[in-house]
Amino acid sequence: MDDFTKALELEPNLDNYFQRATTYQDLGEHQLAIADFTKAVAEDPQEPHIYFARAKSLSAIGDAARAREDIAAWRKIDGW
Prior knowledge:
Layout: H1 2-10, H2 14-26, H3 30-43, H4 48-60, H5 64-78
């Protein structure tokens, strides 16, 4: 985590936020993952995989409504 945090300090961008978010997600730290996925969305709101990944963490914390919104956004951007 220290490496991902340092990378974000040097270059806060979509890839670095996404990488740290997925690591938080793997560790079960879903609130922290959601925060980083949200920052990644702010960097590029047209990247569908971010919405799908964030939906997994939202679902894990029991926020089904927001998870459905992210799945809908993922499908719309991805052309489903």
